[in-house]
Amino acid sequence: QTKMCTYDPGYTSTGSCESTITFIDGGKGILLYRGYPIEQLVESTCDFTDAAYLLLNGELPDGNQHKAFEQELKSHTMVHEKLIEFFKGFKSDAHPMAIMVGVVGALSAFYESKNWRDPAQAQISCVRLIAKVPTLAAIAYRTSVGQPIVYPKNEYSMAQNFLYMMFSSPSEEFKPDPILARAMEVIMILHMDHEQNASTSTVRVAGSSQANPYACIAAGISCLWGPSHGGANEAVLSMLEEIGNVKYITEYIAKVKDPKDPFRLMGFGHRVYKSYDPRAKIMRQITHQVLEHLKVVDPVLDLAMELERIALTDEYFIKRNLYPNVDFYSGICLRAMGIPVSMFTVLFAVSRTVGWCAQWKEMALEKGNRISRPRQIYSGAATRAYVPLDKRA
Ligand code: SDX
User: According to its UniProt record, which residues of this chain constitute the active site (predicted)?
Assistant: First the structure.
């Protein structure tokens, strides 16, 4: 029986942080980007450039700043041709998140700096990442389906460009669909930042050692991939397909609640929100709009709505404050837009790159920032003497 042994390591934990970027009130279902309610940002004319500038620089841009920032992003959407070679090395059925971990991390081989704490170096790294990650994501998709790479076309907005690089065909003229482009832009804004979630904390911890920011964002992508986090949108779709039909919902929920072997309802619950995730409400509206616009009748949406209705009236979920989160509807919407399930978390990473960069930059430029070293509770063996091998039983 090991004795509990505690000691004071003599340093304060640097695991938590102070930030001015995003505020969440989990009880009231409030999400603010630099003080602006997420609902206002997505219901207004706020576009990708606006939201990215706001998160990265702290204020909404004025006309000139908006134009200059959009131009700056567009001038960095291309990636080094040598980096495109990397995509040829992956197995044809490689998961796009595995590819993204590799190629985003590889950006650190193309951009080096003696000092990531230099404001100009920090800013340009964020701009490059925000501009290039959508291009890399589209290339990952195109190579996975054996289609030629489509280079970004800077006449398009960031959201339109992403859809263009994903779905245009060299043999046909690409006709951007404004409804889908706006839906994509809102989805990107919704997922941009979410204070100190697991992947953002990963980026901050990696960045606290003054590591290359491109490698830090790759670390964030690795963490986001897990089904408990960004991988949940993919897991929701698999869950809904496993349930298959409304008539099996009650049986499935009974299995979720089974005290002998409980498991999680994907797309439900949240570390912070103990009320409805405000993003889930918006995602549900967008999903209805997109399916209506595309005239898609998806029985999985009806199934999801019925599952939500039943779960929200079930004592087990009510008692545990379990509500739909942002991932509950996003997969249904993305699939209707033609985005394959394997790319759902990649799209989450494309959007979250903005928040990861804003959080990394805030940490990197913070005066006196120290290397992160979260505290532990030691419950291992107390000090004891070494026993030579020939003396051991
Ligand atoms: C994201 O942090 C962020 O901000 C993340 C994110 C972001 O934008 O970055 O919002 C994105 O990751 C959203 C979450 C996506 N994950 C899922 O949808 C996966 C399913 N959800 C769960 O795995 C879970 O709800 C978590 C991981 C999201 C939160 O887990 P917690 O904090 O450990 O849950 P908890 O400790 O508050 O659980 C309390 C109780 C437990 O039961 P009891 O031990 O009290 O009996 O609720 C149960 C849990 O077992 N529970 C669930 C459940 N989630 C928690 N039971 C059934 N289904 C669930 N989904």
Answer: 270, 327
- Whether the full predicted model's pTM is greater than 0.90, yes or no, is yes
Kindly give the distance from the C-alpha atom of residue 200 to the centroid of ligand 1, in angstroms, as a whole number: 17
* Nearest CA among 297, 285, 292 for reference residue 326: 285
Q: Which two tokens stand for residue 135?
A: 């291009």
From the list 327, 372, 332, the residue with the least C-alpha distance to 351 is 327
pLDDT of residue 3: 44
Give the chain's residues under pLDDT 70. 1-15
Query: Would you state the pLDDT for residue 12?
Result: 45
Cα 261 to Cα 253: distance, rounded to the nearest angstrom: 12
Q: Comparing C-alpha atoms, which of 69, 39, 73 is closest to residue 54?
A: 69
- Which residue, among 360, 340, 249, has the nearest Cα to 21 in the 3D structure? 360
Helix (H, G, I), strand (E, B) or coil at 260: coil
Q: How many residues does the chain have?
A: 393
Please tell me the distance between residue 256's alpha carbon and the centre of ligand 1 in angstroms: 13
- Could you tell me the end-to-end alpha-carbon distance of the chain, in angstroms, rounded to an integer? 18
Q: What count of other Cβ atoms lies within 10 Å of the Cβ of residue 57?
A: 16
Instruction: Please state, in angstroms and rounded to a whole number, the distance separating the CA atoms of residues 12 and 374.
Output: 9
**For residues 163 and 48, is the Cβ–Cβ distance under 8 A?**
no
| Tokens of residue 216, six digits | 């830090």
Q: Where are the beta strands (DSSP E) in the chain?
A: 22-25, 30-33, 36-37
Ligand 1 in contact with 197 (CB < 6 A)? yes
Question: Measuring from atom 37 of ligand 1, which residue has the nearest CA?
Answer: 271
* 8 Å CB contact between 315 and 269: no
Q: Using alpha carbons, select from 325, 328, 341, 262 the residue that is nearest to residue 301.
A: 328
